[in-house]
Write a structure and sequence with these properties.
CATH topology: Cytidine Deaminase, domain 2
Radius of gyration: 17 Å
Organism: Alishewanella tabrizica
CATH class: Alpha Beta
Protein name: JAB domain-containing protein
CATH architecture: 3-Layer(aba) Sandwich
Structural class: alpha/beta
Largest sheet: 9 strands, mixed
Helix content: 10-25%
Order of helices and strands: EHEEEEHEHHEEEEHE
Number of strands: 11
CATH superfamily: Cytidine Deaminase, domain 2
Length: 219
């Protein structure tokens, strides 16, 4: 399966992860704020089913942030009613857009922590959440995408160089820019129509071609 993230989606992914990571979030002006939180959002676009020997495609053309999601340093919990309300609004006035997936962030204190935990990968909780999200929120879609944006701070400023990350279930890239390093990793879930089951897909490929025009690529 191919997950395509178009150029104008990338700023929403990076800036929302960066904001939740670097800046204090308070419930009121005099309250104690928290940093390095996870954040959550939705991917909108369209799905092309497998045909003519070509794999299915999930194409994300827009992204929105779920500001009602309950955020924590180690997890994030979206509000299903908020997501359903957005689906109804989008479907009514932008019928060319469908809800095709989700994204959330993984914040880490330092680069060594990311490497030690392989923090660009999905957690055990993510493995349960992804099929649940597909079944409960997007049961009309045969395939949907799940993107993880991992972020950490660097001790030294670095140029924006893209590196590839590949695994059995996911495909992604990492990029260092200034004192930050990001990972964008794509997973996907599929629906088995016969068994009415939802499961993590294998052999997922990520297409972020537009990023290669804005960042340096490491060969």
């Amino acid at each position: 399966m191919l997950v395509v993230i178009e150029d104008h989606v990338i700023p929403s992914l990076l800036t929302s992860a960066m904001e939740a990571y670097e800046f204090e979030h308070k419930t009121h002006s005099r309250g104690k704020g928290k940093r390095k939180l996870e954040t959550f959002g939705l991917l909108w676009g369209y799905v092309i089913p497998e045909k003519n020997g070509k794999p299915a495609k999930v194409v994300a053309t827009n992204a929105t942030i779920e500001t009602s999601a309950l955020r924590h340093e180690e997890w994030v919990r979206p509000e299903p009613e908020s997501i359903q309300a957005k689906k109804e609004l989008i479907n009514s006035y932008w019928p060319h857009l469908e809800l095709v997936g989700s994204f959330h962030s993984h914040p880490y204190d330092e680069l060594d922590d990311v490497i030690s935990a392989r923090g660009w990968q999905c957690s055990d909780g993510d493995r349960k959440f992804f099929p649940w999200f597909h079944e409960v929120i997007c049961p009309e879609q045969p395939n949907i995408a799940h993107v993880i944006v991992t972020v950490t701070q660097l001790k030294k400023s670095s140029k924006a160089i893209i590196n590839r990350i590949e695994s059995k279930e996911a495909d992604g890239i990492s990029v260092s820019t200034g004192y930050r390093k990001f990972w964008i990793n794509a997973y996907a879930t599929q629906q088995d129509m016969d068994l009415n089951d939802f499961y993590l897909a294998e052999n997922v490929s990520l297409d972020v071609s537009a990023m290669h025009k804005r960042f340096l690529t490491f060969d």
